[in-house]
Design a protein that fits this description.
Rossmann fold, 7-stranded mixed beta sheet, alpha/beta
């Protein structure tokens, strides 16, 4: 699948109808999501690999991974109201994804590759940390994820602690549209990075 086709497919996955600020339900922009998934293809060859999407929301990254041939694909989301939307979006995309309602802190089924757009910790300090801890534990081959640029030192430190290798870290053009009631501007640019981390120990 070409990047342009993937972007169009991801754009068809709907955002949460009533995003919750306390859960930081911010949707990955289709272009950024496509770049993260194409990087996963470059580094890991997603076809036939198991993929876990932590904090899957309405399923944009999970569905994209399935479109690129990953199988099985599981999305984990704590908000039960989003599961039905994610299931319908996967059906519309003609892919198979299992969506599980669970807190990522208690989810323990591993996969080869973890993809995620976790909370950035803007509303609740350190809200991203359980996601990174679980991702680096459950991703037996790699983790591909977004994070605020302010989190670079934390993520690099966590990777070193887990004997993981940072493959790449790229700044992302990320425009956040007005999403929550406290947002006053129509859109704002935020400093976000895209990470690729090898968790598999060298042979």
């Amino acid at each position: 699948m070409r990047r342009s086709e993937l972007v169009r497919a991801l754009a068809r996955v709907p955002p949460p109808p009533s995003p919750r600020a306390e859960l930081e339900q911010v949707v990955s922009p289709p272009e950024a999501a496509a770049d993260l998934l194409m990087a996963a293809v470059q580094w890991d060859g997603l076809a036939g690999r198991s993929v876990l999407d932590l904090g899957s929301g309405t399923g944009r990254l999970a569905i994209g991974a399935a479109l690129l041939g990953a199988q099985p694909v599981v999305g984990v989301e704590v908000d039960p109201t989003l599961r039905e939307l994610a299931c319908r979006a996967a059906e519309a995309a003609d892919v198979r994804v299992e969506f599980v309602v669970a807190d990522v802190r208690s989810y323990d089924a591993p996969a080869e590759v973890v993809v995620m757009n976790p909370p950035f910790g803007a509303q609740r300090q350190h809200a991203d940390r359980p996601f990174w801890d679980r991702a680096l534990t459950l991703g037996h081959r790699s983790v591909h994820a977004f994070a605020l640029a302010d989190s670079r030192s934390f993520i690099a430190h966590r990777a070193v602690e887990r004997h993981a290798q940072v493959l790449e870290m790229h700044p992302v053009a990320w425009e956040l549209p007005r999403t929550f009631p406290h947002h006053t501007r129509r859109r704002v640019t935020i400093a976000v990075d895209r990470w690729a981390i090898r968790t598999e120990p060298p042979s």
